[in-house]
Amino acid sequence: MTSHTIPLFRRSLAVSAIVAWSMAVLLLIGGLGLPLAVQAAEEYECPDREVCRNTGTLLPLRVLPRPFSTIYSEKDVNSEVFSSNVTAFRPLFVFDRVDVDHSDPSEVKGWYRVGASEKIPIGWIQAKDALEWKQALLVSYTP
């Protein structure tokens, strides 16, 4: 190898590593287009007063609130507002899932009982205002 081919070889290795790392992140974040039927097949147990867990992996179920979401004291939009304009994409733990239906992505129905930690639920968020986060890796956006 000449002195000119070594830097080119190192650059191609660096590019390959970046592409491989990016693909791994995409796989972890979005499942790269797994059909909803496959994603919805996961089972969750929500024991009374405990965080919901995946029955296969025992990982806690978390949701990421969408921008401008609201947490209510009860699962009713007319109930007292616990927190409005919840910080978007900051993970919340799920303590209960009531009538959650993702069969029509444009009309998601149901409620999640959520909390900031695995200890105490703080209120209810509409399923249409939250994204289920089923991956083990969690990356938070910090401004």
Description:
The protein has 143 residues and is an alpha+beta fold. It has two domains: 1-33; 36-133, Roll (SH3 type barrels), CATH 2.30.30. Helix content is 22%, strand content 30%. The chain is built from two helices and nine strands, in the order H-H-E-E-E-E-E-E-E-E-E. It has a seven-stranded antiparallel β-sheet with strand order 5-4-8-7-6-3-9, with no helix packed on it. Strand 6 (92-101) and strand 7 (109-115) form a beta hairpin. The termini are far apart.
Query: How many domains is the backbone divided into?
Result: 2
Through-space gap between termini = 46 Å
DSSP helical segment count: 2
Helical residue percent band: 10-25%
Counted beta strands = 9
Q: H/E series, N to C?
A: HHEEEEEEEEE
Q: In what order do the strands lie side by side in the largest sheet? A: 5-4-8-7-6-3-9
Rounded radius of gyration (Å) = 20 Å
Main sheet characteristics: 7 strands, antiparallel
CATH level 3 topology of the largest domain: SH3 type barrels
Mean residue pLDDT: 78
Low-confidence stretches: 22-40
Give the strand content: 25-35%
- The CATH C-level class name of the largest domain: Mainly Beta
User: What is the general shape?
Assistant: globular
Task: Lay out the secondary structure.
Layout: H1 5-30, H2 36-40, E1 44-45, E2 53-54, E3 62-65, E4 69-72, E5 81-86, E6 92-101, E7 109-115, E8 123-126, E9 130-133
Antiparallel strand pairs: 1-2, 3-6, 3-9, 4-5, 4-8, 6-7, 7-8
